[in-house]
Every structure is written in structure tokens, then in C-alpha cells.
Amino acid sequence: MFKWILAVGGYFLLGKNFIGAILGFIIGNVIDNYQNVIGAAKAQAQKEGRSFSTDDLFQYYQQRSSQNDIPTMLMALSAAIMKADGKVLKAELDYVKLFLNNQFGQGYATTHLKTLKHFIDSDEIPLQQICLDIKMRTLPEVRVQLIHYLFGIAKADGSVSNTEINVLNQIASMMGVPAVEFESVKNMFYRDVNSDYAVLGISAEATDDEVKKAYRQMAIKFHPDKVASMGEEYQKGAKEKFQKIQEAYENIKKNRDLK
């Protein structure tokens, strides 16, 4: 059912573009099959009467990501951030639930949360394998947006701890997100006196011309249109990031009295 709904939606969302229809069909078909995959895997695990090891967990990830990339990679990385400081908080879980409800709908969000629980309950999440897999599957803009989403989880309780930042930095590095882009996203959630410059990927010693150039480059690179084919929540996050870039530039302009 979803493959046809999203095919029509993609067609009109991208301005009556058949590429949008094809993308919508693919994503919808993935969603239609996802519940069946989860149910079968759960039944198999119960039949074998065992919990997942690290290797089993990565196989679990691969089996699902081969048919449903986005939800499984989100749940694996979400669990890693939620477990980073040794405790899973309700505020973090609520943030993930809201994201899933907005992205996939309440019925499918429930299914994805079961996948999340598998990763949370595991002793160790095979982050390096998963991140390398994500790096191979996704565009750079999508990986940056994933980091933005993960920072949102970390900030759900009102602050981002050093432990969470370390895990986020590891994930970004393993996914091939450049350090300057990681620092840009980080300073949208974890601010200090130089945060506006860090958001633009420059230092406070940059010249006025360098500030203007950096803003233009960031505005082009992270324009929301870059993730137009992704779901609504990805686009929402991209718009928030783009807004933060604009706010940082306006703050610097004000402080420097730039025109």
C-alpha cells in the first residue's frame, strides 16, 4: 500500500517528476516489507532461545538494512548515543519516538522501536562495522544529517555530555564525516564564544572576506534541497541546520558590523 501512496506523493512533491515517483515507490515498498522481516527474525531468535552476540547483532543489522536502510541504521546509531553515558533517559526515547512517528507513522514506529530495543539490550553495538556500511550506502549530505539527528538525541535532556560528544565524534569519523562539518553541527548544540565561527567551519581570526566566502560555501553545501528525496524529518533537520548557518552568519555580521 505505502509503495503506491509514496510513489504518488514523490511524483507531486518533486514537481510531477517521475524520479520522485520511483524513489517514493522504492521507499514505500521497503516499508511494506519491514514488518514481515522483523516478525520472522524475532520468531527465529525466540525459537533458538538465545540473545544476540556482537556478530549476531551486526548480522541482524545487515539482514534488515539490506531491505530497509534508513530505519535500521537510525536505530543502531540511536541506541549507541542513548547508551553513551550509561543510562537511557525517557527524554531521549521520547525524542526518537517523535522522530519515528513523524517519519514513518505510529504503526511503523512501534516496529522500529522493537529494533531499537535489540540494540539497546546488546552488550556491545558493532559501531565500526555499521558506520562503514552506512558510509558505503549513503551520500555525504545524508551522513551529516544523521549526525544532526544524533545530536538531537544527545541534547534531548537539555545538555550534551562529553561522553556523548566522544561517541558522536567516533561515529562521525567512522562514517567519513569531515571534522570541520562535525564541528559545525556540534556547535549548533554545544555552544561557546567561538561557536558561530565553528558553525561556518572557520576560526575567529578569519578575515571578513573569508567569513563571507565560508557562509556562501556552507549555504550551498547544506541547502535543504540536498536531501529533498529523504523523508519529512530529514528535510526538517536540514532546514534547521540551514537556519543555524544563517543565524551564525548574522551573529558574526552583527559583531563585526559587516554589511
Q: How would you characterize this protein structure?
A:
It contains 13 helices and no strands. By secondary structure, the protein is mainly α. It has two domains: 1-41; 51-256, no CATH class. Helix 4 (69-82) packs antiparallel against helix 7 (127-137), helix 4 runs parallel beside helix 8 and helix 12 (208-221) runs antiparallel to helix 13 (232-256).
Spell out the key features of this protein.
259 residues, 0% strand, elongated, 75% helix, mainly alpha, 13 helices
Task: Explain briefly what this protein structure is.
This protein is mostly helical and 259 residues long.
Overall pLDDT: 76
Give a short account of the largest sheet: none
End-to-end distance, in Å? 53 Å
The share of residues in helices is: over 70%
Q: Low-confidence runs (pLDDT<50, min 5 residues)?
A: 1-8, 14-27
